[in-house]
What we know:
Layout: H1 2-41, H2 56-67, H3 69-86, H4 91-115, H5 119-149, H6 153-192, H7 204-232
Helix pairs in contact: 1-2, 1-3, 2-3, 2-4, 2-6, 3-4, 4-5, 5-6, 6-7
Amino acid sequence: MSVMSSSLPNSSAKRLDVRTVVCTGMLCAIAYVVMLVSKTIFAPLTVVGFLTFDMKDVIIAIGGFLYGPLNALCISVVTSLIEMVTVSDTGPIGLLMNVLSTIAFVCPAAFIYKRRQKLSAAVVGLVIGGILMTAIMLLWNYLITPLYMNVPRDVVVAMLPTAFLPFNLVKALMNGALTMLIYKPVVTALRKARLVPEHESSSQEAHKRNTIGVTIVAIILLATAVLLGLVLSGVI
């Protein structure tokens, strides 16, 4: 009896580990597909030749909320590596910038949410992640882009407030709004598939009201981001 009892926790842990690996692999695949589709959809919104909008950070953020910032980092690296060897023409520099952008946005949000698993914490985390991503990408574009574009640094400095800053702000706004919109239905589907455990809610009515409020705000933010992207790219 004691042997059987001691083996149960190990067996449960193994099942949980397998489930986490399966779900992480699935999120990597979905993130890659979302990247392909969104790059096609948003191709007319290209700001500079290598600044294109894609939505894979939404899927990676969901993985981070479910399993933590380290999981989000793994999904980001795997997805960006596959992107580099399949459809990207920016090489290792593009890979570096891809990963830096994603982890700057997703990992702080996942860390904050894991510390306090509330809807408000997720929203605050996404806002902080968007601000950090914008600041970090300005710095790294200042450092790396002159080498990549083979232009004087002064040219890139002039592009920071006119191209890189608005692009990253719109991207953060769009990804944050989409994450808030689809997180709940995606997690519900994963729970029905028994890929993630059930989560008990202490006040379902309050949670429902909060979800409706966040959904409305997310729709407004998403519409705003799309309009800003259209203006930034010169479409309207």
